[in-house]
Amino acid sequence: MFTTRLLVGALVSFGLTAWSFAFTEHGAIVQSIVQAQHECVTYLNLPKHRLYQYLMYNYSNDAKTKQMLRCVGLILQWWKSDGTLNEHVLAQYFMPDTSDSDYYNRTYRCIGRKAPVDDDLCSRAFETFQCYLQQYGELLNCPKVVPLSDERLTETMHFCLDVLDIPFSDFEQWTSSSELFLHTEPARCLLRCFTIRAGLYSDQHGPFADRFKLQFGAPKPDVFDNELEGDYCVARLRREGHDACSLAARSLYECYYFADTLLPTFVRILPLLRLVLHQPEVETTEME
């Protein structure tokens, strides 16, 4: 009992103090299940004994716990507000047994039974997490990179547009075609700034394959399973002697499926960015 209390106390202390280490590599965020649970218990004004229960994986089947786990999912980006599961994000917090070949199918059979799409969002988030906890593997409490929300991606682009003194209208025009991000130096440098700020790229390493997969999901099956292919592509471009902005843009375009990952994201955050910058929406009229 004494050892258990020490463990719980240490975890609670970690949850209270770890926020100063939550940001790494520019805008990238790392966070653990423990940290997110502590945050959600605070937001929902739950009694502290609830946190102790959750730290011991005791998730009671009640409305408050369901609400808390949905909150955790929203913070860690494995659960969307519309009830969509980002399975590749949730999976990083679990370690399957190497001898278990059926953990994935077993987990999703469980979700199909216990978290039907017509159930309420809190119940679905709760049951989905429980299926992972019971079927997928061991829960890991080490911090993991959290995918950036559209709001934070918008902030990132706003920052880079401001730093590089690029008009919003230029960015809006470039999003109409992926090739336009290669044609001019400002467009290439904007792409480099955004991906560095978002923690997806560095001049020393190039694109981070694991973070691309986490942020966007694989644009097609097995795209990021073989990192050597992407690394070889980037190494080939390095040998061609490009400047920093050109190397970043071409690496993302040629080696990391820009048209299927970053470009759709840019299009999606355009309305948010327009609101932030107080830009009027461009109206299109049909030719008579």
TrEMBL record:
The lineage of its organism: Eukaryota, Metazoa, Ecdysozoa, Arthropoda, Hexapoda. The keyword Disulfide bond applies. Residues 1-22 form the signal peptide. GO terms for biological process: sensory perception of smell. Coiled coil: none annotated. One of its GO terms (molecular function) is odorant binding. This is Odorant-binding protein. It comes from the Eukaryota. Keywords: Disulfide bond, Secreted, Signal.
